[in-house]
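Hey,
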Amino acid sequence: MLRCGPDVVPEPGALSNVSVMLALSNALPAAFLITPALISVPLGFLRTFSVELFHASPILIFLTLLIILMGQIVGKKEGWSRTDALYFSFVTATTVGYGDLHPSKPVSKVLSVMIAFVGVVFTGIFTAIGLHSAQSAFARLRPTDSIA
C-alpha cells in the first residue's frame, strides 16, 4: 500500500521524494531546469499577447458584433428567443455545433454558413496572435546567431 504525507518515513533502501527529484534533475538536460530566463517566457508571452490583442481588438470586436448580428437575424427568422439566437451564433461560430438548435429556412442556413466562416476567421486571428506571441517569447531564449 502506498502511503504519503509528512509523517511517513521511507523504508531503508526506498527512494524518497527528494532523492527521486535529485535523480531526475541530474538526468534532465540543462534546457529543462528552471532558470530566470525560462521564467521570463510566460511573462514575455503575456506581454506580447496582450499588446497584439489590443492592436487587433477593432477587428475582433467587429467580427464579434457581426456574429451576434447574424445570429440575431437567424433567431428572428426561426422564431427563437434572443438568448437562444446568441447561443446558436457562438456555438456555430466556434464550429462546435451541438445540433440542439438548427435553422430550417434557406435564408437562415445561408447566414449560418456565414456565421461559421466569420467564426473561423476570428479563431484564426486569435490563434495567429497566440502563435506569434509564443514565438517571440521563446526567441528571447535563443542566443543570437551570427555568421562569421
